[in-house]
Design brief:
The protein has one domain. The mean pLDDT is 80. The protein contains one helix and four strands. 7% of the residues lie in helices and 36% in strands. It has a four-stranded antiparallel β-sheet, with helices on one face.
């Protein structure tokens, strides 16, 4: 979940330093679905695959554009292909966990820098 949140919120704008100066805001990572395959995580979590789904909506309030990201992170130890959850018949010992978060980022194109701060 933290990986997905960083992709869309990145409070220091390290991935796109100009994002506050331009109208563009971050898209969902991976075009909406990203898989972190088994072996990506360390230690006892290395057997798990993580699938992060993302949906972005945009609302406008006055001069403010508000991007809302819904992230769904699903981890499992027996993925279907490269994705979780397992949509078939998993073997004994199957485990999966899902976390959902809704995050938002606001930009006021008429405000003084930093434009990514609304309020």
């Amino acid at each position: 979940m933290e990986w997905g949140a960083f992709q869309v919120l990145d409070p220091n704008n390290t991935q796109n330093a100009a994002s506050c100066a331009t109208p563009a805001m971050p898209a969902c990572p991976g075009g909406g679905t990203t898989n972190l395959p088994a072996g990506t995580l360390a230690g006892s979590l290395s057997a798990f695959t993580v699938t992060i789904g993302c949906t972005r909506t945009v609302a406008t309030e006055g001069n403010r554009d508000i991007w809302v990201y819904e992230l769904v992170s699903t981890a499992c130890n027996q993925p279907t292909g490269a994705s979780c959850p397992n949509t078939g018949t998993p073997a004994a010992g199957y485990a999966d966990r899902r976390i959902t978060a809704v995050l938002s980022k606001c930009k006021d194109s008429t405000a003084a820098a930093p434009r990514c701060a609304c309020g």
